[in-house]
Amino acid sequence: MIELNHTRNWEKNSNELLNYLNSGTLIPQPKVINFYIPSFIPLKTKYYKTIPNLFQTYSITGKQCMLKCKHCEGKILGSMQPTITPKSLYQAAYTLKKEGGIGCLISGGCQIDGSIPLAQFLPTIARIKNELDLEVFVHTGIINLETAKKLKKAKIDLALIDVIGSENTLGKLDNKLKLIDYKNSLKALQKAGVKFVPHIIVGLNNGKLEGEFNSLRIISSTKPSAIVIIAFIPIKGTNMEKFQTSDPKDVAKVLVATRLTFPKTGIALGCMRQKGKERKTIEFYALKAGVDAIAFPSEEIISYAKSQDYKIVFHYSCCAQIYSEFL
Question: Which of 3, 202, 203, 299 has its CA 20 to 30 Å from the CA of residue 273?
Answer without folding.
Answer: 3
